[in-house]
Amino acid sequence: MADAAVKTKPEAGAGEAERELTDGFHLVIEALKLNGVKTIYNVPGIPITDLGRMAQAEGIRVISFRHEQNAGYAAAITGFLTKMPGICLTVSAPGFLNGLTALAHATTNCFPMILISGSSEREIVDLQQGDYEEMDQLAVAKPLCKAAYRVLHAADIGIGVARAIRAAVSGRPGGVYLDLPAKLFAQVMDAEAGKKSLVRVIDPAPAQIPSPEAVKRALDVLKGAKRPLIILGKGAAYAQADDAIRAFVEKSGAPFLPMSMAKGLLPDTHPQCAGAARSTVLKDSDVVMLIGARLNWLLSHGKGKAWGEPYSKKFIQIDIEPKEMDSNVEIAAPLVGDIGSCVTALLERMGAQWPAPPADWVNAVKSKKDENIAKMAPRLMNNNSPMDYHGALGVLRTIIKERPDAILVNEGANALDLTRGVIDMYQPRKRLDVGTWGVMGIGMGYAIAAAIETGKPVLAIEGDSAFGFSGMEIETICRYKLPVCTVVFNNDGIYRGTDVNRGGGTDPATTVFVKGARYDKMIEGFGGVGVNATTPDELKRAVNAAMDSGKPTLINAVIDPAAGSESGRIGNLNPQSVLRKK
């Protein structure tokens, strides 16, 4: 730590040898470096401006955003991609609050992330005396994350960082808040003692092995199925147990349904993939195995009309969190442990031979899948101007097929729902989207982190409404010269651009944006490439050119304002009044 220390001389006559000192700034940086942190996503300001500067000087890559929420989303998806907590650094109070949405999003989605925020002095905050940006940030953060810690003394920085890392990645991953009051950074201590106070976290996410009894029970239930189905969730993608999961699915012979961020664990074109027959397999299956997926609203809570008779199915569930079992319906075979260990244990116990599912079930799923794919194909081949969603997505589908290594970031309402169903994925962790909350605004933060953490080109498909939440980060993309191509599906509004003001006034309807907006002009102002595309052919040429060049590019994809539906495919969640003003 010699390079992170300062030397001080004692006062005259002190009779004391010159000694080396360090401070809170350096201890935070060294604690992060010791634990493998290579990138920090931040927005500079009081009291953490110098922390960012010094971290950059010490070799950590510090990516400065225009808004803390987007920096937080970048940190969250970094956790998903790397299995190590992404780091978001913010200023106090308002900056902390901006980052808090991303922290809660990370916790909900089980992404390891640490939000580090500077804060006001405890003495003033506790007496509510009105400090600069005064707020008890620890108390605010606690209900919205997995764990929250505050460090008051420089000697405790090493332990504080270590606890935050372990909490973020152990068991079910999630968001952690680390509160660093401004006074902490300037605290000075002996450099050698400071070095000894740092902690390198050993085995932060230890394997959790399932019990043999649970493994046998799960296989007995699966073997008894007449119409088995495997559902892969984003937890399965996070686990990075790709080979074991593929081997298990193929050995079982069962159709599998990937949730959106699990697409590509096995290619969507795999013969067992039932993505194009989703409704059929959910309704008609008799045994369902969940691997890293939860029976939440995204799966209609495992009951109701989407599932056919609500109590006619048996569920097997693999999850590291025991409390997840029986959250909505009875789980006949709970398998508690980390996904890699559970799937490996299942494979070992299946033996050399495993009975194939009944042919009539496999053929029924294939028939429905083929029927739906054939029905969709003509819609993806039109060259209409203005474009509809299917024509635009038809060419983007081909681009991803030709560039399977690219990262696809996706958000919106119609732009999200239709992209998820149309564009096939071929490799794991290549599709990043809104996740469990269906939250808008993740786009540019995800795109930036994906480019930085993977080094791969990124294609971000955005609804015009969704893009508005993080659009200013195209300046960040241009500043760091990242290979991100952003396609904004512009239909002049939220859901559609054809709504009218029912009050008859001069204000536009609440869901309508500026007609004919040119989002492509925004990126040109920052030195990037802007393209206005009005047909699928123009869109295909522009995206291919962007992906080939690696230059920051934004394509304004002009979509028919009448295209789209209210709330995409979840319009049933948008209550509407049964009364109408006459």
Concise synopsis of the structure shown:
By secondary structure, the chain is an alpha/beta fold. It is built from 22 helices and 20 strands. Strands 4-3-5-6-8-7 form a 6-stranded parallel sheet, sandwiched between helices.
Please characterize this protein's 3D structure:
This protein is an alpha/beta fold and 582 residues long. The protein folds into 3 domains: 22-197, Thiamin diphosphate (ThDP)-binding fold, Pyr/PP domains (Rossmann fold, 3-Layer(aba) Sandwich), CATH 3.40.50.970; 212-370, TPP-binding domain (Rossmann fold, 3-Layer(aba) Sandwich); 382-567, Thiamin diphosphate (ThDP)-binding fold, Pyr/PP domains (Rossmann fold). It contains 22 helices and 20 strands. The strands form 4 sheets. A 6-stranded parallel sheet has the order 4-3-5-6-8-7, with helices on both faces. It has a 6-stranded parallel sheet with strand order 16-15-17-18-20-19, with helices on both faces. A 5-stranded parallel sheet has the order 11-10-12-13-14, with helices on both faces. α1 runs parallel beside α7 (157-169) and α12 runs parallel beside α14. The longest helix has 18 residues, at 359-376. It is globular.
List keywords for this structure.
six-stranded parallel sheet, 16% strand, Rossmann fold, alpha/beta, globular, 582 residues
